[in-house]
């Protein structure tokens, strides 16, 4: 799973790309929950939530929890 872009400020629009994302039940930035929209089986859109910190992005799907391939940098 990867994010595009790999960095952003709070409120920035982010695309999460992966596989089997239909049925996603949660998304978070280093533990801070984020609202999201399922675009397709391979894409979710979200925004960097208030309180997010630099770290992994996690997506919870029926098949398990997916982690970003690298850290997401929350810009000041």
Description of the structure:
The chain is an all-beta fold. It has one domain (2-74): Immunoglobulins (Immunoglobulin-like). It has no helices and ten strands. The protein has strands at 2-4, 7-8, 13-17, 26-29, 32-33, 36-40, 43-47, 57-61, 64-67, 73-74. The strands form three sheets. The protein has a four-stranded antiparallel sheet with strand order 1-3-7-6, with no helix packed on it. A four-stranded antiparallel sheet has the order 5-4-8-9, with no helix packed on it. Strands 2-10 form a two-stranded parallel ribbon. A hairpin with a 2-residue loop joins strand 6 (36-40) and strand 7.
* CATH topology (fold) name: Immunoglobulin-like
Q: What is the count of distinct domains?
A: 1
CATH class: Mainly Beta
Sum up the overall morphology in one term: globular
**How far apart, in Å, are the first and last alpha carbons?**
24 Å
H/E element string? Answer: EEEEEEEEEE
- Rg over C-alpha atoms, rounded to the nearest angstrom: 11 Å
In order across it, which strands form the biggest sheet? 1-3-7-6
Oligomer: single chain
Poorly predicted regions: none
CATH architecture: Sandwich
User: What amount of the residues lies in strands?
Assistant: over 45%
Q: How many strand units?
A: 10
Structural class by helix and strand composition: mainly beta
Please describe the biggest sheet, giving its number of strands, its sense, and whether it closes into a barrel: 4 strands, antiparallel
Separate helix tally: 0
């Amino acid at each position: 799973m990867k994010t595009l872009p790999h960095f952003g400020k709070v409120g920035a629009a982010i695309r999460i790309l992966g596989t089997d994302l239909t049925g996603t039940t949660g998304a978070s930035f280093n533990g801070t929950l984020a609202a999201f929209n399922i675009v397709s089986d391979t894409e979710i859109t979200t925004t960097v939530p208030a309180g997010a910190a630099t770290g992994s992005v996690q997506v919870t799907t029926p098949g398990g929890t997916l982690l970003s391939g690298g850290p997401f940098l929350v810009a000041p």
